[in-house]
């Protein structure tokens, strides 16, 4: 089953670990004040306000009384056009915004679903070569208050094409003035840029090091979040042919292999408090995409075990004792490769395919999606 995905994607390389916590807000009622009454029915109080009220003989019905109320949180939808980029020294200072307009989401006209779906299994370099993919990614970064990283990379790419020393020096000064307070460069890279900004013949290595660091940040931090972001899923959903979604009712593999399908399946599982199995499945997808037998694979294998397989883990999934013990043994012996979770995945896929998958096909989540697709 694992290698037999059908549909527009062949193998999923992203890990959807994100999960929204339920907002819990409780109202509080203000209890009415109590008074200690004397024999003549008049309240004793040391408050000047109460003395003045008593002297004025204000009737009870004219006195403002405390009103109990309950705060009900309102669902907040992000309006991309009203989001702004920070211009203060702190990227997360919400009191300081620039007037840079929000980038517009590209139209879906002329864009085929497979093209947009391929971005989820691409790299940052690949998506930036696609003009539409670049714009969707830019909108995500703007919404996430991180567009400066992409603007910085684009500015460096232009400078790297320039051969005039003065132009390069002035360009580096502009980089530092415009983005120095927001980008997360190492002290070494920042020092190299500052030195190049003052040199008669700027060292090209300064641009190369800074470019590499911010590109790595985009690749490892922001791009994984883009893959599972609402803005990307919504764009894909607008392009999704109805025939793709109808295929899910006949093929469990097609459902799991489809970005939009897996998103809605996850939403359904979350509503019935059973999303851990799918999250584990997605974690293993990312694990298998790593270089075989690498240190990164070893570390991620331990992370997955601690998060989903370890007894008492917060997101513990149900596995036969022998399967769990087998994974633990291989981790201890550092015999870690792409097959570490094979038996666990087979068991989880069978669990998902039985009751949850059947119920999802009957759910409002799935049928509402079908109704709005063309």
Automatic annotation (TrEMBL):
In this chain the RGS domain maps to: 123-236, 251-370
Q: Where is the composition biased (Basic and acidic residues)?
A: 39-54
Residue ranges of the TM segments: none
* Chain coiled-coil ranges: none
Segments for region (Disordered): 1-56
Q: What InterPro entries does the annotation carry?
A: RGS (IPR016137), RGS_sf (IPR036305), RGS_subdomain_2 (IPR044926)
| PANTHER family documented for this protein | REGULATOR OF G PROTEIN SIGNALING, REGULATOR OF G-PROTEIN SIGNALING RGS-3
Protein name (Swiss-Prot/TrEMBL): (pine wood nematode) hypothetical protein
